[in-house]
Specification:
alpha+beta; 4 helices; binds zinc ion; 19% strand; globular
Amino acid sequence: MKLKILGHEYEIKFDPKLDKEHGAFGTHCGGTLTILIDNSFPQSHQEESLIHEFIEAINFNLGLKLEHQQIIALSSGLFQIFKDNNLINFKEVIKDATQNSR
Ligand SMILES: [Zn+2]
């Protein structure tokens, strides 16, 4: 699946070994415009990781220089608001995982 973030078309990919091999639920690469999510975790983890990597992408592209702890706190806060109020549903993105693994 591709998502537009700040005018850039990011490829969202999934890798069930990402955490085992790189110690991360998700990664963002501004150079290759790729967001990678470990899909061996429950859906809620994947959804929060996606929000986290969106903020990483915003941080990177706008040069905000946010500390990583700030990115963790922002993604955690936004995820909770979105989920508790049914504001977003990432099922379509997550569902795509089986067809778009690394
Ligand atoms: Zn991060």
